[in-house]
## 1
Amino acid sequence: MSTQDWEERVAAAWATFDDYAEEDAADFRAVVDALVAELPDEAPLGLFERACAWDSTGHSDKAVPLYREALARGLDGYRGRRAKIQLSSSLRNMGQAQEGVTLLTPELDAPSDELDDAVRACLALCLSSLGRDREGLSLVLGALAPHLPRYQRSMANYARLLVAPES
């Protein structure tokens, strides 16, 4: 099995996800499980893909331990960052938003990539779940500002001022 071939088949499986009805969620997870079975036992990547399948089919409770184990076994890089985002979201869904904040806050200082806005959006949701709406709104406005056709500087300043200490 080539890694490239496996990655392409995983991507193809995920491309069909929306074709599955809610009652067919187990069928989708079986497709993912069959792909994961091609990897060495307990490979971090396999744990991650299984977590994603459980998570995407509405089972945060089954996904959380798999995300944790994938990270503990060394899942890093892009997928490691995705796992932290998705784990934080699942934790928030399970009423453990503070753990999500703890997990994602260091990601604000991680090397920048295309997941930066997702980190901020998920962190904002976790903060909101904890009643820290101003901090969450600040993160979301800060993430949105660079994408606006105008008012980038104003929105970035407003975002900063939402959490700036009052003078």
Note: The mean pLDDT is 95.
## 2
Amino acid sequence: MRTIPALLVTIALAASLTACASNGAGSTPSTCAAPGAASKAVTATGAFGKEPKVSIPKGLTTKGTQVSVVRDGTGRTIGDGTPVLIEYTLVDGASGKVAQTSGYAGQTAPVTAGSKNAGALGKALECAKVGDRLAVALPQSALSSSGAPTSGTQDAVIAVIDVKKAFDARATGTPQLAGDGMPAVVLAPDGAPGITVPSTSAPSGDETHLLRKGSGSVLTDKDTAVVKYTAVTWQADSTVAGSSWTDGTGAATIPLAKGQIAEGVRTALLGRHVGDQVLAVVHQQGAAYAYVIDVLGSIRS
């Protein structure tokens, strides 16, 4: 699984809420990558979710990202901000040889469609459906460390992607009232929380409040939680200590087995339902932090 953000390991959770409705689907992309000659030239055979046999013409090039649907799925449509579980095979367009695979063992962490860290590959997932097998032709520069493709025709990298599962892009539970003296939270249209701590001191002990009540599965110590979070310091000049909504990472994965994460974080999430939005105040290293955590899904270890 993807490495846990260091902030979550070294501190912990909390915050409060606003009562606007949400559907969790992720925002609709303004444009979707279209098929092209390179993506249409890809043949990928074999069972969905298993490593395919991929054939392409050698010396394949592309101008920009192209996406063709090799197998049509019938599941939900992927929007901007949607965490997605995929399996993939990368093929060098110049040689036609397989360069890398996900391993096809269910160990790949979610990719958040449209997130900065996911780059061109994450952008290519937008508008796909769960159950799709995609043939994506990317210019080689799109996979460079800068993540910014250069213009013009380039050698292609082919990604054959099986879209296995999608999670909600935000907490979808019923709004609840937080306790007195808790931070105020205003949600942006995409669900990202803005948190304002009160002028009073933080509670002397850790606290957890439910801001949205979900109806999904219950998190246990055998699960890895899929979440989005924002954390702020509880002090007069409160600042954002970290946010997966704005730092480009998209959804984070948090293993809930004992010893895998800070105990305050673990306690705040254990027993929660998928769809919950959690406000937790956690003290660590002499400071208090307020987090808003959206519980988007779980992956059983």
Note: The chain has a mean pLDDT of 88.
